[in-house]
Fold:
Amino acid sequence: MTSKTEVTLEHFYIFNGTYAKKEGEAKKDLDVQIKNIGLSEAIIKFAQSFNPGQPCDYCHTHKTRQIYYQPEPNFWMVMIVGVPYIWKEKDGNKYTEYQYDEVSSSVCQALLKQAYVMFRLFMGSFDTIINEPECGSITLLKHKLEHFYSRYLMSLKLNNSDILDVFQGLQFLPLDKITFLRVQCFMNLVEAMFSQVKYTAFLYNDQVVWSGLEPEDMQVVYNYLVSTLLPAHLEKELHEGSMPRNSPSPFTTTHYGKFVTGPSSINEPSLIGKSPKVFINYSTKPVSLYLVVYRALSATICLFVDINILKDIKLECLFYSLDSFLGPQLTTLVNSVAEQCTKHVTVSSESCKYLYFNKLNLAYKSTIHPDNRRCSNVLTTPEVLRVITDIYNDTNKLKEAGEIIIKTMSDYWVVGKLSNLREFFVVIQQKSASIMEIEEDVKKLCEKELKSIFFH
Amino acid sequence: METTDQDTRDDYYLELSSDPIRFESVSCQTNVFFDDSKQQVFAVRSGGITGVLVKGPNQNLSFRMEDKGPVISIKFSPNMNILAVQHNNSSVEFINYSSITGLDNIEYSQSCKGKNATILGFVWTHGNEILFVTDYGVELFQVNSEKHNVRLLKCLSLGVNWFVFCPQSYLVLLSSGTIGNQMQTLHITPGNLHKLTKFEVEVGAAKPGKLAVYERDIALTVLYGTPCIILLRHQPGTNRSTGAASVHVYTVHKMTTIKRSHVLKLDVSGKFAINVVDNLIIVHHQTTKTSMIFDIMLPGVSDGTVMHHTSVAPVKSIKPYSLKVPGTTLSNEMYQPCQLYIELKLESLVKLITDKVLLVEFLMQRTNTKYILIHILQNFMMQLPISLMDMPIIFNKLNSVYRNYLENKIQNQMGTPLQSNTKSPNTVIENYKYKLVLDQSDVYSYILSKFPENTIEPKMIVWVLLEYIRSLTEHSIPVEHYLHELVITTLVQRKAYYQLHQLLQYHVVADSKPLACLLLSLENLYPAAHQLALDMLKRLGNAHEEIIEVLLSKGYILPALRYIRSVGMVDQISDRKFLEAAKATEDATLFYSVFKFFKQRNLYLYNATSFTKGERYQPYIQHYKYLFEGTDNTCNSDTNSNVTTISS
Structure:
């Protein structure tokens, strides 16, 4: 008998209660599918009778955790994860003990929502697919769901997910006013010179400097860039060797600009088909635009291009002129950003780690996570991360301000503070510390890190 | 003599002044002299008694003097008290003059010191000092009008072919050498002569017995405060009709050295005349009857030592004119405008300069162009979005002048020269004096706040505003609050709240109480504005009262108390404000906390838990009792007991 130490994805399905036939994703036989969906639907319906208008979020069972999410009317997404267990022996009898604490429902719920918004970003909402003028149908939706999730679920990192997935935040680059203005004015100029470009965003080293998108769209795009597109691009560049330069001779002005989505080289133009089409602006007027990502040194520029304006201009021409406009100017701009960044490097203290999140602009900052890739190199224990998630769920219920302090068995102090709609978590590992000392440390840290905001 | 308009089309950028100096026509009996220094025209009528008519820009006088034969030259001293008249080649006569009594008719004279020397000309310099230029050198005299005598101050021996004097800079340029290409410049100061570095004009093979450089090829002037020598060069060695001529500009540095610094390309050859108007060099070409305009302050192409310039605008004629002179009609057929004033028609000229950046720079260097420039910039805004490309450069040009203006202003207020003044070359700072300052209030009130409605997308207005703020910031000019306000309101108008949030996040908008209040008022539109306003108030560091008010207005009573404690203001604040707010929440626990908090404070401050000025606190004390001590409102119980007494 072996133990199961990891959280596993057991089932994942999407159904619409109004359709006679249900569609599913899990590779099980149809019978099990229908059974599972039937059960989920029953639980959802059952819960509704107790609290109408407030749909059921999750259901805890002995061996599983079921998460329900209704992204669009009548559409339900269900994710069932298996709870890890270990074998124990008591009085000569072997039995399994399930580690319920290791599964955080709110993190799982966040992952399920993420799965939906990511689909919506690249494929459009369920509703738009069904009502697409040319070939919209339930069958089309099924195909698209199958196509998208078969790959997406493979990359789902259930065990490396934590509070950051709940936040779905953006890391902003600390920058002085003038450098920010330079970036901002440059992006405005790009929009002015290329009328096809509807929105822009500027990132430096995975950190946002400027976003012309609405926060809820930027959230998804940022997640895609930072966890999927840019790591893949960097990997590719590493394989290709030295930094490619877009210059035929060493004497002409060089620039380091390159398309990440779009033609890989300006001289051999391939089509825009390589750039993904994204669906954004759901809160106001949904549009679909091409996402063109351009990178020079450590800076990444996202351009959201309207293809309908492109009709009379050849795509290659647009890419060519974009490259010759962006490349040289961006290279100098990035240098000035880089210069500023070296001035802003802050050395985080060894003993105190913190996590900051502002839900109003989605900014987060963490010294617990050394980078924002979803890897396991977190500078604390999974237990502490779960405690943070739990505190977050509690502070969420507080209205204006408050503070929760928890001490774990392994001498970790986890402090969660809420003020002015911002969350601030501090993790301190210190043996035989008193709550007074911890309070003092937190106060010092707040004064150091949050001096320019109202946080009391 | 009259000028009449022949053509009212306005694609001419040069025209003759509508206010020329009119004088009697030249005839066999009348000679006309022009004094460049005082801008006076002398009409001398001979025959028995000489009648002299003097016309200047502001004066008009006439007098008679004894006829001593033909006059070679005639000039008034700077303050009009002595008239110098030259009748022969070796001496000059002086007559005292007063505006009331006229000439006193006591003549005294001075001959040149050099034997056998011929006076080439004379100029009045400072006060009653006069400089004779002879073919053997120069002699500086002082004329004493009271004693009617003349004293030699300085002299210098040098073979002189011809000379040119500049009344603005007091420089005199002497041509020496057998072919006249050795140029010696002297600076005339009161009572003294200073030699500047000599320079030689390179010449090709000069024809024997002829000078290589003539007086008519040289002009002395002052451009942007720097004395300049303008030399017209015909392409050496080539045929005059084929080779293109050019103009060389020599600039004088600190009145000691002379350097060839600019070359103006003319592209044509033939006869030329040169004018200087508003620091521009205007070269008239007689063959084609066209004029070219050059501005040495505009960027040119450098060859390492010299800047090469081309004409600012396409070559054009002066607006056609016709001068009716008794006996003959002087029209533009003659194309000799140098005796008349020339005016620049900027309104027409701006249409001919297509490069926007160049145009802005050109206009900034002219006088009285503020409204033309504003108009140009306004038009420029109508060409958005494409014109955004040039805006960074244009704003930087405006703001670098603005920055310098502010620096000078501060320097003047401080009364002490800044260190930087001595470090950087004077000429650079001097140049800014000749540039138009368009400050942020001008840009705001004439351009940024005046976008015609519905012509430009609000998004583009934000682009321009940010570009302007960027440029100001790059020049370390503090941005005025009205620009920040405009950014905020424009972004709010187009509902670009997240973009506004980012601007505030990066502190693009400077913190201030009025802006924090503006943000608070936006809370209904954009909830995060409340957070931003609180942050801003906190950063200001002196807005504790405002922060407390904001928190209380939201019903955040405990956070407000916590804030007070953190900034150490517990002793000062008004407890009734808090008690009232806590009572209003109808939250018993909250009221309890607040009430106890202030009881504690009383204990600490007055060593007593009770509230002083008791009656004001009655409502709260009673409310507390009502909530926690089970007693009803005492007022009510009093009335009740009264009622009972009466009824019993």
